[in-house]
Amino acid sequence: MSAAAPLRQSIRAEGTGWFPRGIHPPEEKLHSRYRPVMSLPAPAEVRLPLSQHAGAPASLIVKSGEEVAQGQCIAEAVGMVSAPLHAPFDAKVGRPVKITLPNGRRVDAISLTRKPEGADPGPRLWQELCSDAKSFATCLEMPADIILDMIRSAGLVGMGGAAFPTAVKLSPPKDKPIQCLLVNGCECEPYLTADDRLMREAPAAVLAGAVLAAKVLNAGRIDIGVEDNKPEAIKALRSWRPDWPGRMRVRGLPAKYPMGGEKQLIRAVYDKVIPTGGLPMHVGVAVINVSTAAAIAHAVRFRRPLTHRVVSVTGPGVTQPNNLWVPIGTGSDQLIEFCKGLTPSVGRVLSGGPMMGMALSELTVPVTKGSGGIVALRAEETKRPEETACVRCGRCVDACPLHLTPARLGQAVRHRRWDLAARENLMACMECGCCAYQCPAGIPLVQLMRTGKTELRKRVTRAGAA
Amino acid sequence: MDAPVPSLDVAPSPHVSAGGLTTASMMREVMIGLLPVCGFAVYRFGPGVLLRLLLAMGLCIGFEALFMGMRGRVSAIRDGSAALTGLIFALTLPPTVPLFVIAVGSLVSIGLGKVVFGGLGQNIFNPAMVGRAFVTAAFPASMSAAAFVPDGMSGATPLTLARAGETLPLVDLTTGHCWGSMGEVSAVACLLGGGYLMWRGAMGWQIPLAVLATSVLFGVFRHGVDPTAPWGWTHELMAGGLCFGAFFIATDPVSSPVSHSGRLMYGSGVAILTWFFRSFSGYPEGFMFAVLLMNAATPLINQLHVTRPVGGHV
């Protein structure tokens, strides 16, 4: 991959900004969308899970009792798909601990205790990220291979949730050339406003990061998709056009859930359909989140590894909703405490949004690279209709953005008819939750889908082993 | 933190759901859609209709409570489905139907049509149609073509007239100035109620559209085969129970397919069978038989119509 190579021919197709089906849950962004990002005062301790990304866990390279400086690598990547970890502040390495992530995975973690005399780097890092266009313009000249190295060593992973190592995503196989870089600023989950605030307050970083990623991919076109319920973000992103020879566009998209799903977004922007089981690269597209784009710029322009991120702490169950710039590894309880605690009426606290986020059983769970929100809901928000029999009203079919038949899938799983579930394409389900959101009979469809998918995967593995 | 540590509730995603949409609210919506039909029936046939409709609803609720009570699940009646079954069953009967016929029909609708299969959502056949088929066979005198014309009145139902090669003005058919079952006489009332349900999203457009469009097609076909027939496709559409059935009987979600293409196929099947029975059987109308037969075909249609996921099959 050479920086001098001509830009790849870009996809000419234009999507209509639409994808079929999907739902319109209340947006609920007002709790926090007008709260500017505040830097959370550095906590006394962070606990960094060694596996907060897709792929192999990182391997510790520091010992208990050792002193580490802000930004120092404390665990390195193992193998191809992995990402290193860095210290968010000057700290003393504590003991290895085990923690349970919101997804139920029990993983190794390392505790770092902040040195009391050390400065809080948070405000400075946030200020850097919010630098103006002029400041970021200088780094766009960097050669592609150096940018990729910096992205890899900064420990960047997808910050929209899946936490796939960014360097791997930006080096697709030779036979899958990427023509378009699609930057995902949809933030279609209700309540969450972290990406919205980031786009408004650090637009230059997002744009510069997008250009840097496009340079690495040698893509000829950049599209930034933002739902049109964030007009300020769209305006901010349009205020600067980085010096880059390809085609670049900020695209307002109608707000609809799950617009931020890769498949839906690619359909809306390029009118292209990813084959079932395929990836965006199979249609010549790479998708990165706006937070990831900003982190790329931060890493390349200021040589900062990924140690902080913006997290929305929001919902009617939080006393003072906020958008916070927090060290990765900070316990969720500390964020909530900074937001003046939970209200007495709180019922459920989520990591992530209400459609796909996971309920926390304990509030000490640390913020990870991929978690963009803590949403506290009251019992009235989480109330579901009492479960009754499925009358096959078909609302789930009208809602499923993947065009599955959730009613029949759910029934197949309940009756353990794995053959039927496989025939009706259960494995294509992405668990977006549209079906369960709409179901008047209160059937836990997503849970059934997960159960069924786990079982089908097991069967495939077993068949492979036999 | 001085605030009391709240007890946290853990559940799988999604953590929010569409407000206020429940099985009971869906049933309520269909009843609202049936209001024009019921209102017109009372206007056309007198207050006796009201008695019969309420009796059928009450009996169906009672039987459901009785049978579900035997299984320890009396609460099942709260979903409103039994009342709706009763209402639809009664609307397909002649306006002067004896009350004991309603009682027996309600018992069969709920008992044999629904509970034997395991209650709501499990039944293969449309319960109201099971009840009606039973009383049609068991009480021929009360359900014969003549029964649809009240004592002391002259005339016959539109479809009986059709058999004799006679016809009624189209405007009478649409506005309901003809004889027939309580719910079916006014096509306008059916369209009003059906339109309301579609506007509210309470029912899909696929089945009514397929039934109506296929009927038009076969009406045109009939006219093509026999140009002397006094019945055009407009009569095919407006006479008898077609409009009522297309919107309120064939659309019973439990006993019809779930995918859009499956529903189109099902609706067309209902229309074709109806046309067949109307043309050749011993009964002037055939919607009930058509629906029951297509109900039987529903599991197969569901298997044939596996939706193609975005991106293709796995």
Secondary structure: number of strands of chain A: 17
CATH-scheme architecture of chain B: Orthogonal Bundle
Contiguous uncertain segments of 5+ residues of chain B: none
Number of strands of chain B: 0
Q: Distance between the terminal alpha carbons of chain B, to the nearest Å?
A: 50 Å
Strand proportion of chain A: 15-25%
Could you report the average pLDDT of chain A, rounded to the nearest whole number?
A: 91
Any descriptors?
heterodimer, A: 466 residues, alpha/beta, Rossmann fold, four-stranded antiparallel beta sheet, globular, B: 314 residues, mainly alpha, Ammonium transporter fold, 14 helices
Describe it.
The complex is a heterodimer of chains A (466) and B (314). Chain A has 466 residues and is of the alpha/beta class. Helices cover 29% and strands 19% of the residues of chain A. Among the domains of chain A are: 29-35 and 123-302, 3-Layer(aba) Sandwich (Rossmann fold); 395-465, no CATH class. Chain A has 16 helices and 17 strands. The mean pLDDT of chain A is 91. With 314 residues, chain B is an all-alpha fold. Helix content of chain B is 59%, strand content 0%. Chain B contains 14 helices and no strands. Chain B has helices spanning 23-45, 48-70, 81-91, 99-111, 127-138, 140-143, 158-163, 170-175, 187-199, 206-225, 233-238, 242-249, 260-280, 287-304. Chain B is globular and about 75 Å long.
How would the blueprint of this fold be written?
The complex is a heterodimer of chains A (466) and B (314).
Chain A lengths: L36 E3 L5 E5 L9 E2 L6 E2 L4 E4 L8 E2 L4 E10 L5 E9 L7 H8 L3 H5 L6 H10 L12 H4 L10 E6 L8 H8 L1 H15 L3 E7 L3 H7 L9 E7 L8 H9 L14 E5 H13 L5 E7 L7 E6 L4 H7 L7 E6 L6 E2 L13 E6 H4 L12 H5 L6 H9 L3 H6 L10 H5 L6 H21 L1
Parallel strand pairs in A: 1-14, 9-10, 9-12, 10-11, 13-17
Antiparallel strand pairs in A: 2-8, 3-5, 4-7, 5-6, 7-8, 13-14, 15-16, 15-17
Chain B lengths: L22 H23 L2 H23 L10 H11 L7 H13 L15 H12 L1 H4 L14 H6 L6 H6 L11 H13 L6 H20 L7 H6 L3 H8 L10 H21 L6 H18 L10
Helix pairs in contact in B: 1-2, 1-3, 1-9, 2-3, 2-4, 3-4, 3-5, 4-5, 5-14, 9-12, 10-12, 10-13, 13-14
